[in-house]
Amino acid sequence: MTRVQVAVLDDYQNVALEMADWSAIADRADVTVFSDHIFDPDALVARLAPFDIIFVMRERTPLPRSIIERLPNLKMIASTGPFNASIDMAAAEEHGIHLGTTGGTVASTVELTWALILAGARNLVSESLSIRDGGWQVSVGRELSGRVLGVLGLGRIGARVARIGEAFGMQVIAWSQNLTPEAAAEAGATRVDKEELFAGSDVLTVHMKLSERSTGLIGAAELALMKPTALLVNTSRGPLVDEAALVAALEAKSIRAAALDVFDTEPLPAGHPLRTLDNVIATPHIGYVADRPYRIFFSDAVAAIAEWLDRQ
What we know:
Layout: E1 4-8, H1 23-26, E2 29-33, H2 41-48, E3 53-56, H3 65-68, E4 76-79, H4 89-94, E5 98-100, H5 107-121, H6 124-132, E6 148-152, H7 156-167, E7 171-175, H8 181-186, E8 190-191, H9 194-200, E9 203-206, H10 220-225, E10 231-234, H11 243-252, E11 257-260, E12 280-282, H12 291-310
Parallel strand pairs: 1-2, 1-3, 3-4, 4-5, 6-7, 6-9, 7-8, 9-10, 10-11, 11-12
Helix pairs in contact: 5-7
């Protein structure tokens, strides 16, 4: 049997081979790990052309029809998580390409959300940099207890974020298109209208799935409703927020700050204003980048590849 060629894409930390036991496919496959990211479609196709199996981490490298149709050797895509919106499933099916998915956890994203909320409330970045630069106190933080936490999207992640907000002594309000008052109450939140969510929140945290309906859900009109003291947190997907409108609001200081883990284009381009604005805390999409989810991702992906190879 000819050895199968497997490409692991966007392994930024170069940890793929140590996060799982790859011995189940070692006698049948050669695994090549790439730790860089390619934006250019032609360069991406040239890189992937020799490979039978591509392992993609979340949406780091999209695989639209325009890419899939130029990879005649591709027989399987392994993707972390139960679903990857950046893969054209119809194109993959039409070309007989098998899709393997994995399990995962949501705890790491919940934890990062609260790390960003606390960092934004207590100005941890500027205070830490002041210490590093030889200084001392430079700001007055904002206590969360008694303030309003707004949760946009009260699913598996949003509900956990809401319960932690309640533990901090915050009043929790929530909205999404299909949210009922009863479902909100189960997470310790009060269901409000969309306008009230934006106008009333001291901290607004976003936990929606990206879809045609939700893209650009937070635009200039929604940002204009927010308090000038409000903190916007997004650990979900960048395009949920109109990025140009957000930059304009931050530059005008019509909201106090944003804490962001996700962006329209990832990796975030050099020179982007969200890299330099002093009222932005930015992390490089690390909500799921933690030991436990990584071990689940890579172990399940190896198992999916091994199962596919067993059937050949």
